[in-house]
Design the sequence.
């Protein structure tokens, strides 16, 4: 049972690490080119600034999700030692 919990913790850490690398970069370039420059027609100089704000917001959301998952994780049982 302890191995299962360690494996799930490692899997969650790996998922959040990949999300922390991929999603902010993707959201930066996507929001810059598609949302701000494409749809909203913002100038290129200003779109860098707004896209950076979007990427920072994505990082904060991922960190909040990681904290929520870590906080709501079931506690591992403490082994009972026999006292003689």
Sequence:
């Amino acid at each position: 049972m302890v191995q299962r919990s360690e494996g799930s913790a490692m899997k969650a850490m790996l998922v959040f690490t990949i999300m922390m690398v991929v999603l902010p970069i993707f959201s930066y370039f996507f929001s810059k080119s598609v949302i701000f420059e494409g749809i909203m027609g913002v100038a290129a100089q200003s779109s860098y600034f707004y896209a950076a704000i979007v990427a920072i917001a994505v990082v904060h959301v991922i960190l909040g999700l990681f904290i929520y998952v870590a906080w709501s994780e079931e506690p591992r049982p403490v082994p009972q030692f026999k006292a003689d």
